[in-house]
Amino acid sequence: MKSSETLLVDISGGVMALTMNRPGANALNFEMIAALQTAFKQAARDLSVRCVLLTGSGHVFSAGQDLTDVQKAQGESYRAHLLRTYNPLIGQIRELEKPVVAAINGPVAGAALGIALACDLRVAADTARLVVGFSGIGLAPDSAVSLFLPLLVGLGRATEYAFTNEPISAEQALRWGLVNQVVLAGELNQLAWELAERLAQGPIQAMGLAKRAFNKAVLGNLAQILDYEAHLQDIAGKGAEHQEGVSAFLEKRTPHYQKAGS
Predict the structure, then answer these.
(1) Residue pair 143/109 in contact by the 8 Å Cβ criterion
(2) Which of 66, 82, 77 has its CA nearest to residue 226?
(3) 1-186+204-262 CATH choice from 3.30.470.20, 3.40.50.300, 3.90.226.10, 3.50.50.60
(4) pTM of the model
(5) How do residues 16-51 score in pLDDT, each as one tens digit?
């Protein structure tokens, strides 16, 4: 697979390194999502790929879905959008019977948080900030965030950060088990690559079977949750709160949800 403008691909030493590459916020657009889906398809069938390493270019992992991209897709419901984008991508990450490592090099929010949480291991820079994000524009969690976040940090914390949209620091994320390691930002790329290479040299079949067992044990309802999230997002996407949230975001102002709900 060749690199695209939005996704850089490098295969070396058994590791497929994927770098989301939309300078600035690495916001996910339809082109990048499709490129990620294609990359994970290749990772599944290419025997030379024994581990996938996912990160973002610059100092941001990804700010999540590009809202302007969604607005351009007039007529497509949020449910239809999720069924062709994030739902299959999250499924691919979990079904790939090879290790998937996320190197969280900076802020991550929204659907990108779901992608990071779907990975098997997460190594974060000390500058990383994890934001649930959806309530900031009047939406409900999707991309399996509603499953992964309470599973990893507990229902109370998940609810707090979904409702308040406050950032979770790298150190908090480490204490709560959202990430496996926190390293200095300048050392992240090297250490994450070394981890991915070490995993690539391991017993991949055994790791894949362990991943299958974990999926069965604690993520057996993943497909149903993704489908239900898409249903709920369709409701939220048609609401006045979402319209106000998007308008406020584009106008760079504080949203007025009380007026939207009246």
Answers:
(1) no
(2) 82
(3) 3.90.226.10
(4) 0.95
(5) 999 999 998 999 999 999 999 999 999 999 999 999
